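Appendix B.2, paired examples.
Example (i):
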Amino acid sequence: MSAREFRSLHPDLLFVPYTGYADSTSYAKTTFVFTDPCGVDSRPEEDCPVRGTLAYIDVEFGFESADRPTLFMELWGAVFRDSSAPVYCYRTSVEEAGGRGSLKGREIVAHWDSESGFWATLKKRSFPREVPDSARTSYRIGWGEHSHDVAVPNRTPCDDRTNPD
């Protein structure tokens, strides 16, 4: 879908330089990433319009209890459960700056492809020691050409390739 067609269907979305458009709710932020977004911070959309086509959609959910499914999984979980094993799945250690220092946790990344060209990447980041009941979950959803480049140091494969959690 072209940027012009997308904008005519969704005129109320927020313009985001370097990306395309975004929408936020109390539970999630959705970003629509285009192949030729405006590459300038200080100019309004009229002076630097988004061009190209929709490349993928990012959906990010805030911290929530790790043992409850996210709204995204409630709505889209069947797509992942019914698909074959991920093309790749790995775990890696992560570190984020926190209030009194850094938080040490883990990230799980799994990627699926379908014969129709649909693809999805799940990322789940959690900090079990410092924040035992929380996790941040995000999904990248797209269609067509994409990369499987996963040059991540110190990664280990997921234990069960059909269920990355």
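Example (ii):
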Amino acid sequence: MTPTQKKVRTALLTAALAVGLAAGTTTAAVASPSGIACSVASAHAPSVAAGLSGCDPVGIPIDLGEPTEGATDTWQATDTAGVGYLVPGDWTGEAVVGDGGPGHEWTSPEVAASTEWGEQHWRILVQSPFVDQEMPDPEWLNEIGFYAQYIEVDGASEAVLVAAQKGHWADPTVETIDFEVYVESETTGVVTRFMGELPGGEKGQFLLDNFVPTIEP
């Protein structure tokens, strides 16, 4: 880790994905997936579990909406390991190391929650390539309690969104949209993960709807 990189807390689907990436060929090897999902949903942050039998329902599923014309005209263009995307113009970024490898974390000037861990800002974390460069299977993720769906991303051979609205991991009274986007480049095959916390309600939905279409894997 270089001096300009920091380690960030990125536990989201990692526990589940560790046994379930490319689940179409590995489902038979998965032990007690419902227990994994319950554990991830209750113990880690952020979490987008949609609830299971035997688990308390967590979060409200979020679908990707249509982008707003002109919404990103003032956003800044950037890239992580050659993967391009736009982020709001007043957000700041720095190199980080997360559970999926090195990348960049972008944070808003707005403070989402003030906690014992300090001030938490709305954020987007980008990691490319991500872990073992395998794509998650939405069907399998939904079976174990996450809310996942295939989406269209220009330049991607495959893209998956996992998103839900719930209480912020650092302060459950603060509504947040937790999300992950996995994209596999159709030219290089590299899998990139975007994840983070956005404001709850219309503001976060606006940011998600307009951020995702800017991704150029």
